[in-house]
Amino acid sequence: MPQIAQILETYASQFFWLLIVFGLIYFTIGKGMLPKIEANMDARDRKIADDLAAAERARAEADNLGDSGEADLAAARLVAQGKANEAKAKAAKDAEQRLAKADAEVGAKLAAAEADLAKASAAAMASIESVAAEAAADIVAKVSGAKVSAAQAASAVKAVMANG
Amino acid sequence: MAGESGKIDPMHQFQIEPLAPLNIGGYDVSFTNSSLFMMIVLGALWLFMWGGMKRDLVPGRWQMAVEGVTGFVNNMVSSSVGPEGKKYVPLVFSLFMFILMANFMGMMPFGIVPGVHPFTVTSHLTVTAVLAVLSFGTVLVVGFWRHGLHFFSLFVPHGTPWWLLWLIPLIELFSFLIRPFSLALRLFVAMTAGHVLMKVLAGFVINGLNAQAAWVPLVVSIPSFILMIGITLLELLVCAIQAYVFALLTSLYINDAVNLH
């Protein structure tokens, strides 16, 4: 086995070159290149994590915005509804008032007209009574030749008219 | 591969041959085929990592592969040590990648080029021992640095009955001290055994084909070849598993030093 047979002749050379080579590997590759590669991997992991966090934040913000928009919309709708109701009520009251006023005017006019009408019909009735009494006296005189006083005729006409 | 007179020596692949003699302070530190493959491992590992250095936000295929490996080691360390394990990721990563690349480089079919032999750096006890000592030494330094002499409480697990206090620390101490040996031997033996097995099977295939009798290739070479395909795939799995085991045990030992059970 040359590993053991040659050990006394070769150990110095083996140690010497191995320490040089392993030292180079440790200091240039292990201490030099490896940390850079790891730093790059860490930076990538961090970037991915940061991007994910930012996306999550943006999503939450958008959700919030949507919620508050909806709430704003609902509030605005409520206000608008209130205003509309108010306006409707006001308009209704206005119309009622106007209607009542007009009603009152019309009523007054109507009452006046009715009064006029009643006065006129009473006057007409009175004139009809006197005309009828005259006519009755004339008719009696013509038919029977009897003279009927105006007072008698008027009472007779009043009795007839009272009957019908 | 082939030794003299047509014999195939399965141990020849572990032979260290100096390529450029070098002597520093009386020590023979020649540049050998083993050193060459360490350099190849370093180059391959550097190339692999360099491909992942584009640092795009959206990774390409190569960057994804590099980040997969670094993420795997990072996960392993942080799940066994906890958040304080971040400091030890470079060490565990270097151990894991060096062993993995060295194992795979030993499996590469460089042998199809005449005169070139792949060499498995991690099949040498001298190499795995240094790696194990690095791992164990880190545990010792971290343990005494963080806890001082209190680190010895590692040898008295919680809930030890008082009448076992003479035995349990002894067993714990023994199991603690055996760690570097088990780390080094496990890797060394697994790689050596696998490569010997593959070489022996390859020898069966080749010697069977060279045999005089016509029935030998049919009975020996073809079954050996089929078996060898399976063994090679298994060996590729072992390469990854051994690197994983070494790195995982190192991070578990560091956990002992950092958190004291």
From TrEMBL, chain B:
CC terms in the record's Gene Ontology section: plasma membrane; proton-transporting ATP synthase complex
SUPFAM superfamilies the UniProt entry points to: F1F0 ATP synthase subunit A
Keywords, sorted A to Z: ATP synthesis, Cell membrane, CF(0), Hydrogen ion transport, Ion transport, Membrane, Transmembrane, Transmembrane helix, Transport
Keyword Phosphoprotein applies: no
Highest taxon, organism lineage: Bacteria
Membrane topology: Multi-pass membrane protein
Transmembrane regions listed in the UniProt entry: 35-52, 88-113, 125-145, 160-178, 185-206
Pfam families for this protein: ATP-synt_A
Gene3D superfamilies reported for this sequence: ATP synthase, F0 complex, subunit A
Localization annotation: Cell membrane; Membrane
Gene Ontology molecular function, alphabetical: proton-transporting ATP synthase activity, rotational mechanism
Classification via NCBIfam families: ATP_synt_6_or_A, PRK05815.2-4
Record family assignment: Belongs to the ATPase A chain family.
The protein's name in its UniProt record: ATP synthase subunit a
Source species: Sphingorhabdus lacus
